[in-house]
Design goal:
The structure is a single chain. The protein has three domains: about 5-50, no CATH class; about 85-195, no CATH class; about 205-249. Helix 8 runs antiparallel to helix 9 (about 170-185) and helix 12 packs across helix 13. It is mainly α. The termini are far apart. It has a two-stranded antiparallel ribbon. A hairpin with a 5-residue loop joins strand 1 (about 35-40) and strand 2 (about 45-50). It has helices spanning about 5-25, 70-80, 85-95, 95-105, 105-115, 120-125, 125-140, 150-165, 170-185, 190-195, 205-215, 220-225, 230-249; strands at about 35-40, 45-50. GO terms for molecular function: ATP binding; glutaminyl-tRNA synthase (glutamine-hydrolyzing) activity.
């Protein structure tokens, strides 16, 4: 609606349009997309139809020559583009458009993602993004520069993500390793092998450890079973400690 020069006119025009459009729809008609003008009687009247033709027509400028796009120019432009923009490559990997653009616009982050790109399809973009966010949080808390500048870090980072994705390690173990590697980079797989930090997948072993922890911490277990949150947290911590001792032996 055009020709509105005050809030009072705006209020009147909106109310008029509500009544008009309600009347059109109630009578079985269809409200068309058009430009209307507010007049001195407080009504809106039709100016231009937007459904069929463009509102504003372009007219040739007599003082400017017509530019003819030559086929060789198009070919030259195509040849000059050596590869697809990073955000296109990231979308092909499976990242949603907004995230792909976000990564591509940050030179340092883009470089890190590129170093991880070959292994991202193995773990999936969802896992990668979740672990990248965890890494960012760890580095920010440690007042470290994010993303990591060491190219070798990307390889160890993806090893941790991959081992978690396939169920070989727990998330807790992965996060602990990342915290260690942020300050002192090491070999993730070698670390897990040497210290036997793999996830315990045998249900019998897990059940035995839970029973042992409950037996040693009867009162805490009773409170946890009764819904006491702090006791439950304490039991989890004790179970983790017990599992570490079990793994070492």
């Amino acid at each position: 609606v055009k020709n509105i020069n005050s809030f009072r006119h705006l209020h009147t025009a909106i109310n008029y349009e509500i009544d008009r459009q309600y009347g059109v729809i109630s009578s079985g008609g269809t409200v068309v997309n058009e430009t209307r003008m507010f007049d001195h009687q407080g009504r809106t009247v039709s100016m231009r139809d937007k459904e069929v033709k463009t509102d504003y027509r372009f007219t040739p400028e007599p003082n400017l020559p017509i530019v003819k796009i030559q086929p060789e120019w198009v070919k030259e432009c195509k040849d000059s583009v050596s590869s697809s923009p990073n955000y296109v490559n990231y979308q092909r990997l499976g990242f949603e458009p907004r995230l792909a653009i976000f990564y591509a616009e940050d030179a340092e982050l883009s470089r890190f993602v590129d170093l991880c790109a070959d292994r991202i399809p193995v773990v999936g973009t969802e896992q990668f993004v979740a672990w990248l966010n965890e890494l960012k949080l760890i580095m920010q808390r440690g007042k470290e520069v994010y993303p990591p500048q060491n190219p070798k870090f990307a390889n160890e980072f993806m090893t941790i993500v991959q081992l978690y994705a396939c169920g070989r390690i727990t998330k807790l173990r992965g996060l602990e390793t990342l915290r260690t590697f942020v300050s002192e980079l090491g070999d993730a797989k070698k670390l897990f092998e040497t210290k036997n930090l793999w996830r315990i997948t045998d249900e019998n072993i897990t059940r035995s450890m839970v029973e042992e922890v409950f037996k040693r911490n009867g009162k805490t277990a009773e409170k946890a079973l009764a819904g006491h949150a702090k006791s439950l947290t304490a039991l989890k911590r004790l179970l983790v400690e017990h599992s570490e001792k079990t793994n070492r032996h």
